[in-house]
Amino acid sequence: MKKQFKSMECPVCHKFYFSELTEEDVTYGLAQQCTQCGWNYDLEQVNDPDLVDLVNGMSLKEYKKKYKKLIAKDPGYNYLEANYTPIPHTCPVCGKHTFPEAGSFDICPECGWEDDGVMENSPSEFAGCANDLCLQDFRIRYQQEIKKNPHYRYKTNGLPK
Predict the structure, then answer these.
(1) Which of 23, 24, 127, 145 is most buried, by the most CB atoms less than 10 A from its CB?
(2) Residue 28 pLDDT > 70, yes or no?
(3) Could you give the residue ranges of the DSSP H alpha helices within the chain?
C-alpha cells in the first residue's frame, strides 16, 4: 500500500511545516523529519495517535509526552542541536591532522592551514581570506617546503616564506 502525504504542521511541536515529499519518498516510505522535535512524518500516526510504528518507535501520543518533558527541562530544546555529532575532517593540505569538524577554523599544527570549510569546494579561489593562499597554492607551497625540510612543522617553524 502506498503511503499518503498531506502538507501539515508538525503535530508534536507545531514549529515545523511538512510541505512536500517527492513521489519517490512516498513510494519508498522515506520520512521527512521535524528539525525541532525529531518526529518523523507519518500520516498514519496523525490519523491514529496510538499507532506505534517503526519510523518513530513510539506512538504520536508517546512522542508528544516525551517532547513535553524535554521542553520542560529546556524550553529552547532543538532536536538537531541536541543530536548533532561533528564529523572529523582531515586536513586538505597535508593529511596529517584531523580537525574536529569541517569549517572549524582551527589551524593545522603540521602545515598551518586554517580550515574554513569553503576553499575545498573551490581550491583555486579565495586567496587572502582565512589563509594567505588558495588551497591549491597552499598545497604546492607545503610540498615544496617538505622537500627542503622533511621535518617541517608549522607549529615549530611557522609558515614558509
Answers:
(1) 145
(2) no
(3) 23-28, 43-47, 60-73, 79-82, 135-148, 154-157
Residue 12 grid cell: 508534536
Predicted confidence at residue 141, as pLDDT, reads 95
Average pLDDT over the chain, rounded to whole?
Answer: 87
Residue 80 has a pLDDT of 81
Give residues with Cβ within 8 angstroms of 105, minimum separation 6: 114, 115, 116, 130
- Of 75, 45, 73, the closest CA to residue 57 belongs to 45
Q: Return the SS3 of 41.
A: coil
Q: How far apart are CA 106 and CA 97, in angstroms?
A: 11
Outline where DSSP puts E strands in the chain: 8-9, 17-18, 89-90, 98-99
* All structural domains of the chain with their residue ranges: 8-82, 86-161
